[in-house]
Amino acid sequence: MGVVDPAMPHRTWRVDHGDAGVRRRRQGGGLDLATLEASPAEPTRPPALLVPGFTGSKEDWSAVVEPLAATGRRIVAIDLPGQFESAGWPDRADHGFARLGVAVRDVAAGLTAETGHRPHLVGHSLGGLVGRAAVLDDPGAVASFVLLDSGPRSPDRDGARAVRRKEVASAAGGGMAAIHARLRALDGVDERMPEAERDHLRDRFVASSMAAYLGMFDALLAEPDRVAPLAATGVPTCVVRGEHDRVFSVEEVDDMATRLGGRTVVVPLADHSPALEHPAATVAVLAAFWEGVEAGDRRRAR
Questions:
Q1: What is the set of domains in the chain, with CATH numbers?
Q2: Angle CA(61)–CA(67)–CA(70) in degrees, nearest 5?
């Protein structure tokens, strides 16, 4: 069940995350990963793999998995290792982008084996940097790549996020629940959000692995600009951002798109999470890009 945010009419608060897709498990990086999946009875097009951002989960895609599946594809959204319902590795240092990218690549390989087609890969925010690591490790593993509200490098332009990491790390002795409480004290509460959705966000945060949370935070702060090697892979790539997103510098995001041989596609009336804030427009953008890639593949095959 969805509830519309009156302050942003296109935003869908998913207060019942059991009403979209099918929950499954897949293997990636030697781990048991939780997925949210949707598929038509007889898929006619290559599948897609959706990767969430920092402190996110597969539920961040719950408003788009079924509409995307309706375009003729098997759609798989995952919890990254250590997120929410996915197992993680034991150590903080294990959760850097290179090893997370291997887990994503493994899931992509499984989808290729199942369907006979390489999947389109979409990475949201930190998930875009993880997806980039997967593409750089094995460009042939995916049919295309979308960076959704992601950027060329760490978004910590002024050191504020490094200060935040120290702040939340001081609460780490109390576990993930204590870190969540510290974050709420720092950020306040969005009173527009239904209580059921606030509960969901808290529950998934607390259920996530401390090692994964801190390790991903470390990786996010340290990530360099790797746009040039991504462009050199030749993998068809699209840069998409919400109209009002400022997590990554707009100027850097637009420059990244140019260096990748294209331009930024803007989802109107969306902020940092277009798949929830304007799902219909997000579905349209992704479907159009994938169809263009597939049309090009068909032309080259003639």
A1: 15-154+224-301 (3.40.50.1820)
A2: 135
